[in-house]
What does this fold into?
Amino acid sequence: MPLSTIASLGPLAEKTVIVRCDLNVPLKDGVITDDGRVRASLGTISALLEQRAKVVVISHLGRPKGEPDPQFSLAPAAARLGELLGQDVPLAHDTVGPSAKSLVAALEPGRVVVLENLRFNPGETSKVDAEREAFAAELAAMGDAVVSDGFGVVHRKQASVYDLAKQLPAAAGQLVEAEVEVLARLIDDVERPYAVVLGGSKVSDKLGVIENLLPRVDRLVIGGGMVFTFLAAKGYAVGSSLLERDQIETVKAQIAEAERRGVRLVLPVDITVADRFAADAAYEHVPADAIESSSFGASGIGLDIGPASADAFAAAIADAKTVFWNGPAGVFEFEQFAAGTRAIAEALTKIGGLSVVGGGDSAAAVRTLGFSDDQFGHISTGGGASLELLEGKRLPGLEVLGW
Ligand SMILES: Nc1ncnc2c1ncn2[C@@H]1O[C@H](COP(=O)(O)OP(=O)(O)O)[C@@H](O)[C@H]1O
Ligand SMILES: O=C(OP(=O)(O)O)[C@H](O)COP(=O)(O)O
It folds into this structure.
């Protein structure tokens, strides 16, 4: 079934349209380090403003715990949106409280307001249907229709992504439409060899997708924070690196399954181990099976793949015809741990086929490391969302729009 699109909502002039964006931008000291997700939201918002709709932008940022937390305020994103739109964009101090209600009530056609972080409210991410529905009803009371344009979050069954679209006339925005169109090409009919490169820090989310990816891919390349659960599954000590201890047995089964299916599993042969998590940490390159042999012993933390691994990853990517990459290979935000991520990005720019980078931090990484968007086939605003789409799964935020 095709996605329902904005046109299906009929004329929107003077109507209050809630737009669910993904403005979950990377921040350093309160400053946006990559505004890609704000820029990606402009198409839909501008199209609605041209129709003289009243636009209410809603989004999450980070993972606050269901209550207000200033470090996760949407203020930087709202300010950037205003700069890019060339109009003053006020930010409500709450999401469905008095500030939001009065700003929405006073909204003029052709103007935008941003409501504060959805995840400051426990109903947004509640596992209890009635709690999510109740929060969605409070959002729904503020608008005439909802446009779902936060592609990065369509894999989450959350109030603003799923329940809200059941309570109001709903349609996909331009970004969601465009993302689905490109990524759908990677579901059924990929040019082979097909390599998926994984990394990043949302380890349990990503370990979860591997089982369904194994029947689809020819090569699976693993770096980033998730690699240490693989190394632990092989029986290696990983010092103080990120580790999902309760996933070790699952990962052992995945390694065996990759072998059974003839999927080439590329794991690091060396690791860059640091004495602490810091930009100026001391570091050493050590074999992947001897992480605790560095001078830092068991307190060493793996913050990047090592140089031999970077070469091996680049080689595994080089002759692939389709590559999907989500998750930095290391803590690229610290220059001395960015080499693995840089090597992967470089390799993707050289393949003779379709290269796709997905994820907020992965997109930020390629841009901050000096690559330009046009060096890749597609840069997706969603990491987990793209991966779950590529698994062939139905995603709650798309299913509710008819896809
Ligand atoms: N070895 C590692 N240890 C800790 N964090 C890591 C490691 N490798 C990568 N990361 C972190 O992973 C983060 C991105 O992860 P994630 O959110 O999963 O990616 P994306 O947003 O692209 O989907 C980055 O901030 C990076 O610093
Ligand atoms: O950053 C995001 O996803 P990504 O890290 O998979 O790209 C989205 O904003 C979703 O955030 P969430 O993983 O906290 O639900």
Remarks:
- The chain has two domains: 6-177, 185-390.
- The chain has a mean pLDDT of 97.
